[in-house]
Amino acid sequence: MTISNSSNKNNDIIDNTISTLSIVDVKETPRLNYNNNVLLNRRPKNNDAIDATSNDIMKKQLTILDTQSTKPSSLVNFNQVQQNTNVKIPIAPSQPLSYLPKTELSMLPGNSYPCRQINPIGIQPINHQPLFYNPSHVWKNENDDQQRFDIIGGLPCEIIDLIIQKLNIKDKFKTLDVSNVWRHKISACSNVGWSKLELRECDVDKSKLGMILQQIGFHVTSLGVCYFQEPGYYDTVFDEMSNHPLEKLEEFIVECSDFQNIPRFINTISHVAKTLKVLEIKAPWVGNDRYAIPLKTILTICPCLKTLRYRNFAITLGCHPTEEEQHIIPSNMTSCLTTLDIEIKYITTVYLEQLLAVSPHLTHLNLILMEWEADIVDRIHHQCKNLQQFCFNLTPYNESYDKDSVLSTGGSGIRDVSIKMTYPNQFVSFLTNHSTTIRTLDLSFSMDDDFEDQIIELQDEWRMLRDVCHLSELRSFTVTMNNILCEILVIPLLQKAPHIHTLRFCDTLLPMTQTLQMTPELRMTLVHLQHLKKLAFSGNLSNHQEIQQLFRMLANKTRKDSTLEEIEFSCILNGELRMNGVLELLGDIPSLSSILLSNINYFPVQEMIRLCEKLHHHPSIRSIRLCRIDCIDDTMLDRLAAIKGLERLTLEYMSNITRYGLNTAFKGSLVKIITKKCKHI
């Protein structure tokens, strides 16, 4: 992004198109920050102003707004305006007009709106002194809303289009419902504004909902219909999609808590089937088998469908083929599916085989079942020859599982495995019978208080797992473990797979009575991983001296030898990190670029201060994400923002930061602050 000075020394002219504009409401002088063609700016102060100068806009009519009276003060014919004319748009910081068009912009800092004269040929200069915006002003009735949105609707389509992109879904509905001007203007907006639309928990009446879909239907490529309070709203959407098909729709997502009208849904899908590539249906715990979506019909009527996700733990598939003939999949049918994600109560092996048989291009398969047949994994491997990613998330409380069964697998080409089971013979039989190297492995599972005894009883089987030859090329490894499992499986496996770059110790599933101890052997194993880039701890920790020693050894590596780029600590509930400078040592790791600290009890304030001081001149740090950390207040936020090199700061569920703190946070290289569910923001 290039920046040049205009004739006005107070202006910064951005010469290229803005790809992203993010504005946060603050109270002091705004500031522009630039990084990789992204403009991230805090929302202007109540009495600041923004000029929008563009050859495109100058050829259109533009209303000069008085933001307090909400009445247009003048109209200018830009066909008569000289090229050096500047157009002033006073903007209320908390109104949709804060979002400017993707054109050349200039920011005018100061304590008041600048009064620029508009001097078109043949028109007397306009002595327009805009009034300060009063943040306490409230739109008290529908007529005020009508007037407000009609004024906005008189703006050029470029501005309207950008406003639409930035509004949340409720504001979009309100805007389109209130103003007739907007209803006409919306048809002239570009495809970008409405390419993706999500309708969620909306209280708009059904007739207006249908009107909205009519107005924007020809733009939408992705539509989400999520959790309407009344089932009738789904029928309205489905009817409108049937009567006025969305000709460009490629992605359709339906989430509901009362999904029962299956025939109407199938009829809707048939009207958008020619372009549909992604279909996602989420109706957890709804109905019974009678409300199961007939996947055969979906695959039959959607020839271009590549991704199918179906979630409903209340239904089964394939149990009643005589009663539900529509669920039987013919063998002569072929689909284009590449990704299949099924989360249901139960699926028969026969039905799954039929589904896989008509999906020869399937590369990603995710099955989450509450009940299953013992040979289901064997069938998958025999049929899915092109499979690259497989997730089989079996729940350990399943009573129908036969723990003594051996799952002999075929020669499929799985490269990415995420699997959760309880007994080691499942893993061994699964991993030893295919030919492709496994790059990602997830061995996370729940442990009860008796699991330690089970590990001791089955330690020979766990040792078999570490000898699986295909695991020597692991790149990403996630494991739930206690100290015994660490000794007999994890350490030998890490020593065998030196190319691991992502390692997660996921111990949130351990009982509260158990903790992960950083033994000297595990510490040395981690230090000697020469390609480790990401290290994550989630769960209770103990033996903080060894953890401190681990990070001290990582910090002692030279910049050339250090590879660790990301550190994560989350759900540390036993407070062990508060002792002996564990967090402070993060600032000494020379290659570290990203830090995540989430949900840590007894977070040490002084150690956070020392961490900020060490990171102040850190050569690599770029991103910090903090979640549910009580010690983060405006003062601490100011320390974080002062870190040189920091570009992205994410704050989630923070109760002690304010808008004033955000105001002072834009310093140095910081270009983006993301807040999520912060109490006072």
Automatic annotation (TrEMBL):
InterPro entries tied to this protein: F-box-like_dom_sf, LRR_dom_sf
Gene3D superfamilies xref list: 1.20.1280.50, Ribonuclease Inhibitor (3.80.10.10)
Name this protein carries in UniProt: F-box domain-containing protein
